[in-house]
Amino acid sequence: MSEKKKRVLIVEDDDMIVFMLQMCYEHLGCEVVGNVDTGEAAIDFVKQYSVDFISMDIMLNSAMNGVEAAESIRLNKYLLPIIFVSANNDHEPRTKAIVNSAFLRKPIDLNDLGTAVLSFNIS
Q: For residues 31 and 75, is the Cβ–Cβ distance under 8 A?
């Protein structure tokens, strides 16, 4: 019997990075169920669709950055695991305060991404 694929939402505003992340997650056996480019859209998505975890860019081209979106998702009682991805470490301390999350620096290493996905123990 095959294992259920982990369903991931990608929150990223750079189309090339979305494509790269999608390829990486699919290589790891995950199912990409959607991608959005704003924090507000991420909040709406998790309210409407079944997601096992979120891949969240921090700097988004919207009023709300990825950390703020994650905090809002937590306030709405969604404890979904979140993998933060960022090109710099400036926001890493703030992400550590968000329960059930991991921080990876761009460019993403596939082994680190796989370790982060496995660390959530999603069933």
A: no
